[in-house]
């Protein structure tokens, strides 16, 4: 009896000790003291060069206007640099412990609703979408506690057909994944990798599953190409009858179809295990009602899921962001279920990573520094922003709940709420919640759900959540949680950044400006962190000025910098060199290559003089009522020749887009200014002129070196991806006109 009592007391002590152990830990990035010293010295250098600018203004007629323009540009850069320091001062990283989660909760875990949004079966192929869906259904998590919802804003029978095919294939795919614990669990990604996975199972079984998957994707792709579904296939599920009437992507009734009902005893996989719930939704679209793009689809999903599964946790991903880590749900729950901090956390954001980046990141789409430094920095001051994908939310905060210290989540939601209604009854109830008029005269899109009226609805929604008192967490596990498809052409990249910069700037100019809306609600550094992205678009003007005016001034013999031998040149050199050296160190330490860093510098300039410039002008036009908000879906499809050039890291142009005219004009202008400027120096007083104009020569030369791929695309390359001759001709004309502009 004494031994039993001792054992019982020991067990109680172990249990209490386990309850006090955190489910996650927070680490501060190393090297912060060195970075702060670096930042202080750079700040001193910036102040010195601004002082020089302000105290050495030339006389009228000797380039005064150009000089004052340089001062304005440098003042802007200084202010923006100061804003960026808010998230670089003390970034953190979070370390979840899923082993502790398992020891503490076992399988007594909350239900999770997973939302996937797609909009166009041609820009976002259904075969890609269902690979994402299948990867999410195969999480290392109790299947009866997972419900996956696909929102099809295109209302396409082709997407529904693909999801129906996926519901059949899931019966084989999910047990296969769990039996051999394979990663990744997207069949498209898994089978595209090397055949080394065969050693996990018999070659016969591996080949059988692969053949089943390839047959399924072939049927789906054939249907997409033909644009129709056979009557034989339609007879297999009642859902196909929803398209018996004439439907279009912008005019159709609400459609909700439960393809797999997790609580149905017959909804089992090949091994007799329960399958996750799988639901298709196409909310009602009518031409006379504004549908609010992705935000409207997300809000419809929140309502529809509330009568089907009603899980307390909602996760959403883009249709191309497949699950790359089967333990991601458990990682996220380590934050929500932590006894000390969990009740304060409103959402957990995972980073955006891509599986198709080239080695040297030709279009600057690697977000390694952003993921590891900037988002970690925001995490240290209140939490990262919501980026619209790869995010776990509490359902209640999406429904407008404010944070209170005594708040306690009911983690049994989605279990006890399940009723015994038939599938047809549930579907009909859900359809009424997806009607186009349901939100009229309600708080949906304002106080409830994802906010409306902004291209970057995710950012403003996250800001609203933070201002209601909630914190957020950035989780960046060693194995990426999600992998998606990065833009593979320059046009796709510029379109994506135009949308991001336009959306963020429109928020900055609205009532949701972080400095006004967040005043008194979130920390000043948190407000500044949000503003980094809100000020992307205005960066276009000083950048455009800096890549044009100093070069033109060189051509016209007007000096805009101190002489190279002057002590005042020191702060210019110091800021330029130290800032870029640290940027290179940061990129390399985050996993980028030297050439990748250089490509990022090129794309930094290109995005600012094109995407951000268009984002700025479009935002101003909307504020003046000259245009309306639109949402452009970034295509996930590229031609074979484009894909080949992307793999070879050759920049893709191929069209006469106005953005290319800007890029080519700036490149030609700087080349001409460099050549003519050198000739003038060589034919004039070599030593004197070189001393005066060396800074402008160096700047112009750096721009020319940066623009080498554009010269090749205009004058050397012969492939379809070259810059069209019409663009080159127009750019030559604009460059000549720019040379005639007087510098005063």
Automatic annotation (TrEMBL):
GO cellular component: Golgi membrane
Membrane-topology descriptor: Multi-pass membrane protein
Keyword set includes Nucleotide-binding: no
Keywords for the protein's UniProt record, in alphabetical order: Cell wall biogenesis/degradation, Glycosyltransferase, Golgi apparatus, Membrane, Transferase, Transmembrane, Transmembrane helix
Ranges in a coiled coil: none
Residue positions binding UDP-alpha-D-glucose: 124, 153
Catalytic-site annotation from UniProt: 153, 458
Xref: InterPro entries: Cellulose_synth, Nucleotide-diphossugar_trans
Gene3D superfamilies cross-referenced by the UniProt entry: Spore Coat Polysaccharide Biosynthesis Protein SpsA, Chain A (3.90.550.10)
Cell compartment(s), UniProt: Golgi apparatus membrane
Residues binding Mn(2+), per UniProt: 294, 318
GO molecular function, one term: cellulose synthase (UDP-forming) activity
Transmembrane segments: 33-52, 64-83, 660-683, 689-711, 723-743
Single Gene Ontology BP annotation: cellulose biosynthetic process
Chief place of localization: Golgi
PANTHER family: X-BOX TRANSCRIPTION FACTOR-RELATED
Function: Thought to be a Golgi-localized beta-glycan synthase that polymerize the backbones of noncellulosic polysaccharides (hemicelluloses) of plant cell wall.
Family statement drawn from the similarity comment of this UniProt entry: Belongs to the glycosyltransferase 2 family. Plant cellulose synthase-like E subfamily.
Name of protein: Cellulose synthase-like protein E6
């Amino acid at each position: 009896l004494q031994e039993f009592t001792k054992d019982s007391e020991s067990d109680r002590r172990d249990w209490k000790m386990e309850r006090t152990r955190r489910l996650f830990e927070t680490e501060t990035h190393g090297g912060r003291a060195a970075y702060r010293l670096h930042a202080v010295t750079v700040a001193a250098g910036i102040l010195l060069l601004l002082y020089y600018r302000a105290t050495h203004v030339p006389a009228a007629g000797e380039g005064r206007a150009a000089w004052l323009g340089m001062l304005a540009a440098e003042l802007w850069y200084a202010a923006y640099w100061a804003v960026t320091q808010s998230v670089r001062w003390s970034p953190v990283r979070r370390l979840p412990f899923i082993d502790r989660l398992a020891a503490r909760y076992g399988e007594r875990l909350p239900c999770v609703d997973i939302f996937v949004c797609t909009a166009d079966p041609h820009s976002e192929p259904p075969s890609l979408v269902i690979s994402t869906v299948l990867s999410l259904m195969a999480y290392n998590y109790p299947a009866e506690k997972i419900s996956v919802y696909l929102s099809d804003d295109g209302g396409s029978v082709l997407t529904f057909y693909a999801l129906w095919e996926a519901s059949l294939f899931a019966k084989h795919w999910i047990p296969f994944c769990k039996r051999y614990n394979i990663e990744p669990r997207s069949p498209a990604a898994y089978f595209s990798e090397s055949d080394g996975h065969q050693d996990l199972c018999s070659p016969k079984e591996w080949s059988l599953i692969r053949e089943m998957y390839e047959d399924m994707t072939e049927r789906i792709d054939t249907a997409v190409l033909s644009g129709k579904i056979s009557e034989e296939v339609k007879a297999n599920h009642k859902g196909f009858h929803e398209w018996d009437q004439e439907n279009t992507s912008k005019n159709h009734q609400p459609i909700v179809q439960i393809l797999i009902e997790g609580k149905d005893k017959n909804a089992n996989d090949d091994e007799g295990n329960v399958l996750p719930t799988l639901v298709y939704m196409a909310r009602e679209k009518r031409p006379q009602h504004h549908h609010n793009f992705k935000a409207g689809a997300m809000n419809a999903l929140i309502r529809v899921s509330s009568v089907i599964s009603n899980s307390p946790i909602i996760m959403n991903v883009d249709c191309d962001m497949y699950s790359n880590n089967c333990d991601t749900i458990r990682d996220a729950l380590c934050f929500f279920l932590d006894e000390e901090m969990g009740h304060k956390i409103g959402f957990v954001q995972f980073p955006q990573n891509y599986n198709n980046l080239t080695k040297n990141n030709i279009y600057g789409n690697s977000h390694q520094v952003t993921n590891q430094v900037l988002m970690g920095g925001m995490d240290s001051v209140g939490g990262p922003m919501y980026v619209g994908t790869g995010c776990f939310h509490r359902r209640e905060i999406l429904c407008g709940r404010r944070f209170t210290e005594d708040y306690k989540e009911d983690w049994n939601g989605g279990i006890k709420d399940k009723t015994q209604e038939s599938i047809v009854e549930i579907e009909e109830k859900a359809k009424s919640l997806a009607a186009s008029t349901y939100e009229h005269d309600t708080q949906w899109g304002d106080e409830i759900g994802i906010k409306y009226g902004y291209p970057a609805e995710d950012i403003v929604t996250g800001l609203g959540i933070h201002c209601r008192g909630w914190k957020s967490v950035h989780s960046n596990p060693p194995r990426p949680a999600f992998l998606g498809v990065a833009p593979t052409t320059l046009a796709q990249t510029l379109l994506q950044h135009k949308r991001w910069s336009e959306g963020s700037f429109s928020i900055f100019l609205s009532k949701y400006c972080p400095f006004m809306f967040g005043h008194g609600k979130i920390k000043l550094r948190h407000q500044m962190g949000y503003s980094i992205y809100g000020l992307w678009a205005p960066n276009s003007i000083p950048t455009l000025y800096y890549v044009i005016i100093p070069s033109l001034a060189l051509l016209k013999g007007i000096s805009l910098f101190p002489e190279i031998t002057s002590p005042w040149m020191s702060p210019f050199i110091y800021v330029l060199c130290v800032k870029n050296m640290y940027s290179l160190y940061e990129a390399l330490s985050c996993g980028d290559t030297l050439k990748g860093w250089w490509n990022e510098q090129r794309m930094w300039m290109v995005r600012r003089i094109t995407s951000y410039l268009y984002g700025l002008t479009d935002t101003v036009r909307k504020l003046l009522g000259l245009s309306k908000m639109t949402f452009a879906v970034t295509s996930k499809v590229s031609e074979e020749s484009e894909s080949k050039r992307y793999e070879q890291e050759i920049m893709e142009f191929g069209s006469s887009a106005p953005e290319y005219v800007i890029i080519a004009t700036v490149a030609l202008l700087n080349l001409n200014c460099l050549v003519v400027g050198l000739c003038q120096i060589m034919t004039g007083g070599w030593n004197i002129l070189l001393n005066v104009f060396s800074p402008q020569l160096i700047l112009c030369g750096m721009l020319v070196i940066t623009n080498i791929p554009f010269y090749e695309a205009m004058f050397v390359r012969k492939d379809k991806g070259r810059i069209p001759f019409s663009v080159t001709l127009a750019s030559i004309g604009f460059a000549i006109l720019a040379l005639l502009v007087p510098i005063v």
